[in-house]
Amino acid sequence: MKKIAVDAMGGDYAPQAIVEGVNQALADFSDIEIQLYGDESKIKQYLTAAERVSIIHTDEK
Questions:
Q1: What is d(CA 48, CA 20) in angstroms, rounded to the nearest whole number?
Q2: CA 28 distance to own-chain centroid
Q3: pLDDT tens digits, 6-54
Q4: Residue 45: helix, strand or coil by DSSP?
Q5: Does this model's pTM top 0.85?
Q6: Using an 8 Å Cβ cutoff, are 54 and 25 in contact?
Q7: What is residue 10's three-state secondary structure?
Q8: Of the candidates 12, 1, 10, which has an alpha carbon nearest to the alpha carbon of residue 36?
Q9: For the sheet containing 53-57, what is the strand order?
């Protein structure tokens, strides 16, 4: 299992665009695990995957 860390708050249209990409990656690849870093409440709005993903809450961007 490969573990990937992702800054969910960085980039244009964050966190929506980043989290939608994470949802797609988790659907397409069964051998990855994702750690999302950022504002947990904003990330959860867009996260549909429940398995193989964890959110590490951060107050700063």
A1: 8
A2: 14
A3: 999 999 999 999 999 999 999 999 999 999 999 999 999 999 999 999 9
A4: coil
A5: yes
A6: no
A7: coil
A8: 10
A9: 2-7, 32-38, 53-57
